[in-house]
Prior knowledge:
It is built from twelve helices and 13 strands. It has helices at 2-8, 17-33, 62-76, 87-100, 107-116, 132-144, 174-183, 218-223, 267-271, 277-286, 303-319, 342-349; strands at 51-55, 82-86, 121-125, 151-156, 184-188, 211-214, 235-239, 242-246, 248-249, 262-266, 289-295, 322-327, 354-356.
Amino acid sequence: MFDRAARDLGSALDSEQRPAADALAAVGASLLDASPVEGARRRVRRTPARGAYLHGPVGRGKTWLVDVLADQLAVHLPDGTVLRLHAYEAARRLHRAVAARAGTGTGLDGALTDLLGDARALVLDELHAHDPGDAMLLSRLVRSLPERGVVLLATSNYAPAGLLPDPRHHHLVLPLVAALEATCHVVAVDGPVDHRAAGHGGARPRWCTGAWLTPGTAAQLAAEGLARPVPARRRQLLVGGRPLWALAADPLDDDDGDAEPAVHLHFAELCERPTSVGDLLELTDRYRTVVLSGVPAPAAAGQDPWRRFADLVDVCWDRDVRLVVLAAEEPRCVLDLPITDRDRMLSRVSLLPAIAAS
């Protein structure tokens, strides 16, 4: 199945992808061979097979490999038994489910039931766990999967022991590390070929219609079919329960079926304030184009604002939201940012057309 999928892309599995493909094939075979006990609750199903946790640098095909298996499983298993989520989205859903069950006495256990439903396989993409609160929720999620008969298929740029590397918080992720190592085949996918750069990485079509504009003039915006916001278009949004000022935002109830709503934001408003990943997910629920202006040179902002900028890149990439960046420097400046995951950011923003003013 993996060789055929690679050929369809005009590529072939490399030697570093082969062990991961073999591990995933074994997981898939065990899932297709096993069947739930008729009429029984999930808790009395047989112990699930070991899952798979693929880790390695960007562009090595981790998500693509897992998606090939997940697509195959979805063909042969009933609807709802393969649940695919970005790790950010899984954490958000758990936060919301816990809040919805406040005062019921069911708490996190009930929230996990709400999240998993009838799933037998959970695909978690980009299990990075930079936020301590998210890391603790994801830890509880992963530890609950065996008793619920659910197999985990996960991707990450980090080996399990490298998750949540901040030494102030790393102890919070140790139960997750132990659960991953106990329940998954942990496979490094770290070959020399960047398949995304070679055009075999499954780039998102809307993402690739975005742009990185330096410095972001009105003429550059116009070439992207966008107008520079005027003060009269400034409006206040409510995101995550707090006000967020947008330079401009299209109405969400527009009757024009061909138009997709866009929001214009400033780096200082979005990234220099305590914006969470949940806020970014909420924004991209509403808007299919995000224009971020005022992105400074790397030395002009601290670690926290750049971490939020990186989160915006990740969320827009994962959700295939068009991102237009108006920046002081060209895309390779992300390698100078004071954060982890710089290589992943560059891999993604390098697929945005970079346009400098003449």
